Amino acid sequence: MRWTVIVISNSQIKRILVSTLEDEILLAVLEGQQLVELHFEEIDSESITGNIFLSRVENVVNSLDAVFVNIGTSKNAFLRNKDIVKKAYLQQLGGKATDAHRSGAIDSLSKGQKLIVQVKKDPIGSKGPQVTTNIGLTGRFLVYMPYSTTVGVSKKIEDPEERKRLHDFMGGCIHDEGIIIRTVSKDITLATLEEELHTLRVKWQEVLKGFQRFKKPRVLFSEPDILEQLMREKYDTTVDEVITNSKEVYSRLQEILNHFDKKYVKGKLRYCPDDILELYNVNKQMDDLVKRRIELSCGGSLVIDRTEALTVIDVNSGSNQSNGKSRDMVLETNVQAAKEIARQVRLRNLSGIIIGDFIDMENENDQMTILKVLEEELKKDKAKTSVMGFTKLGLVEMARKRTSPPLGELIHETCPVCKGEGMVFSPKRIVKRMERELEVAAKMKDVKEVLFTVHWNLSGYLSKEWRERSEAAYGKHLVLEFSRQDPNGYDVRYKKE
Q1: 104 assigned to some structural domain
Q2: What is the pTM of this model?
C-alpha cells in the first residue's frame, strides 16, 4: 500500500488535501493562499508515543529518582518518580490510603512488579522511551484520564458560557476519574461527548483486562494509524473541504471522517487526480522555508535565526520608509510583522523561547496593539503558546510548547557550499520532490525519458537501485546528471517519443 501527503488550507475556505507518495505522509495547512503548517510523517513510523504497555520493574535508581521498566521493546523505559501518579500507585500496587500523601512511590517498588505505563517520548539514540503512569486516552473531543479526578477545559475555548456548559455536563458524567475537554468540543452536542466518553471507558477496561490477564511486558493499547492521528488533530468543524488525489486514501478518509461526526463531514470529502501540491502552490512556499529572510508586502522583512537556547526574529523596516520612520509606518510594519511571525512560528514549528525584535515603538498603545495581534494570530495554533510582553529592552518574549521536532530538523541540513553559514533542503526532501515530478511524468503518454540535473550532494542518494526502482514504478527511462548548481533544487527535462 502506498501513501503520501496531507495538506491543509483556509481563507474564507479551509481545505485539507491528502496526496500519496511512496512511504510518506505530508500534512500542510493553508490559510487563504498561505501555507501555515507543514508536517512530514513516515507511514511505517516506529513511533510508540501514546501507546500503553504492561511493564515490569527492572531496577530502581535512587540517584536518578527514577525506575527503569521493561515494556517488551529492545530498550528499557525510563519512569521518573514524579511521573508515578499516586492514584495509579495505590490501585496497581495495592498501596495503602495513607500512602497517597507520599512524595513519591519508587521506594516501594521492587524488581518484577507490574505497572501500566504510557509512552511520553519515543526512544532517541541510545536512550529508551520515557513513560508515565498518568494515563491519557485521546479521543476526538476528550482525553480520558482514569487516574485523575478533575475536569479540564481547553484554554482555547474562551466563551465563559460554553466553558461552563462543557465543564458542568462532563463533571456530572465522571466518577473518580478525569477528563480533558479538547478545543474541538466547542459547540458539540452533549450526547456526542457522552458517547465518546463511553467509548474511551470501554478502551480503558480492555487495558485493565490485559493487565490482569498477562504477566510478561507487552503493548495493551496502540494509537491508531498515522492518517487517523493527523486528521484527529487537524480536522475540525471549520474545515470546508477535504481533497485527496488517491482513491485508496479517499476510502480510508471516508471511514475516519464518518466516525468523527457525519453531521459535519457530509459532502466535504472529494477525490482530485491532479497534483494538489502544485495546484495550491505548496511546493513554491516550501522552497521559502530554507530562507532566513522573509519579505513583507509593506516593504519590511523578518530575519529568523535559531540557536540552541532560543529563536530570534528581527523586524526590519526595509523599503517601507517613504515617509521616514513615522509612527504610522512603524506600526504598519510591526503589525504585519506580528502576523507573519505567528505564521512562521506555526509553519516552522518553532518552540521554546522566541524573541521578537520589533522596530522601536515609544507609544505604549502601539505596543499593546502588537501584543494583541500576536495573541489573536496565535489562537490559530493548536500548540500551547504564551506571549509574555515587552521587556525593558523593547523585545517581545514568547514561548511555545515543543510537541515535535522543528521543521528545520526534518527538511534541512548544513549547506555543503558555505559549511554551516546557511541551510539547504535535505537530500531526502529533494528526492521526494523528484519522485513527485516522476509521478506527474508517468501520466504523460508521449514522454519516454526524464532527465534530472541535480547537485552533486545528492549522488549518494540517487543510487542505481533508486533509479531502477523509480523506472519500474513510473514507467519512464531516467537520466541523471550531477553539477554544482543550487543545492536546493534541480532541473528537469522531458524527452518525447
Answers
A1: yes
A2: 0.73
From residue 296, give the alpha-carbon distance in Å to each of 100, 135, 241, 317.
56, 45, 29, 9
pLDDT tens digits for range 369-383: 999 999 999 988 888
- Answer yes or no: is 264 within a domain: yes
- Taking only the tens place, the pLDDT of each residue in 323-370 is 556 888 899 999 999 999 999 999 999 999 999 999 999 889 999 999
Domain that holds residue 164: 137-212
Q: Do 141 and 185 form a contact (C-beta atoms < 8 A)?
A: yes
Residues in contact with 124: Cβ distance below 8 Å, sequence separation at least 6, in sequence order: none
Residue 219 maps to a domain: no
Confidence at residue 101, expressed as pLDDT on a 0 to 100 scale: 41
Question: Which of residues 336 and 288 earns the better pLDDT score?
Answer: 336
Number of helices (H) and strands (E), helices first, in the chain? 12, 27
DSSP-assigned letters across all residues of 242-279: EEES-HHHHHHHHHHHHHHHHHHHTTTEEE--S-HHHH
Domain count, the chain: 5
Distance, in Å, from the CA atom of 255 to the CA atom of 257, rounded to the nearest integer, reads 6
